[in-house]
Amino acid sequence: MTDTILVERDGDIATVVLNRPDKLNALTKSMWQRLGVVFAELSADDDLRCVVVRGAGGRSFSPGNDISEFETERSNIDQARAYGAVLHAALAAIKTCRHPVVALIEGICVGGGLEIAGCCDIRICSRSSRFGAPIKRLGLVMAYQEIGALLELVGYANAAEILLEGEVFGADRAKEMGIVNRVVPDGQVADEAYAAAGRIAEGAPLVARWHKRFLRRFQDPAPVTPDELEEGFACYGTEDFQIGTRAFLDKTKPVFKGR
Fold first, then answer.
1. Which residues pair with 182 in a beta bridge?
2. Strand, coil or helix: what is 15?
3. To the nearest 5 percent, what fractions of the chain are helix, strand and coil?
4. In the CATH scheme, what is the code of domain 5-201?
5. What is the pLDDT of residues 166-185, one digit of tens each?
6. For 16-70, how does the pLDDT look when each residue is reduced to its tens digit (9 = 90+)?
7. How far apart are CA 167 and CA 253, in angstroms?
8. CATH fold of 204-250, please?
């Protein structure tokens, strides 16, 4: 299980690798379980500034769940409910990770792979990437806990097209829909994704966490509370604010401490 979800660390940037390249990184129940644990651990790491998620092998981010596992793990309602609890917990852990999360997408990004990417904050894909959720062919639905991220990302009309037509489509259409932030030539996506992660990591980490939380909060229709509004001024009490303003005045590059 630990071999199919790898965590690599380069300073303040972590990479989570979906590691079943022989199966194009198709996801198993144990992988979902491990993915949730990994993201909970990364979220709690104050020294971290950004997480990159990618698939191993360069040919596929992930085609979704391993259908061969369905006979033993999702053959009836009770099994599906138990499987769903693990899957939904993993998606929630990705979405609620305190640190910005960048999806590095090469090749296939379908079904559960699309759901993982949709829970990330920034998505960068290669020109040859393919997207979709053709689960209607399996007689399956995308559950409430899974469909929310897709709906937030692309809106009702595009989500309806993806789920009702069930087509697999290319990177340009994914960009039009808002699934990905940018499309780059094959062979350059890793450089672009890690460059984005580097730009994130250079910034004040507390600010990145606040911005992520504020953006996510506005997806909740409930009115913002006075306490939440007050949090918008908390940055002025941080050491990083002093570091950043001083560096700007001195025309030097700030080195933030996350305090």
1. 124
2. strand
3. 50, 15, 30
4. 3.90.226.10
5. 999 999 999 999 999 999 99
6. 999 999 999 999 999 999 999 999 999 999 999 999 999 999 999 999 999 888 8
7. 47
8. Lyase 2-enoyl-coa Hydratase; Chain  A, domain 2 (1.10.12)
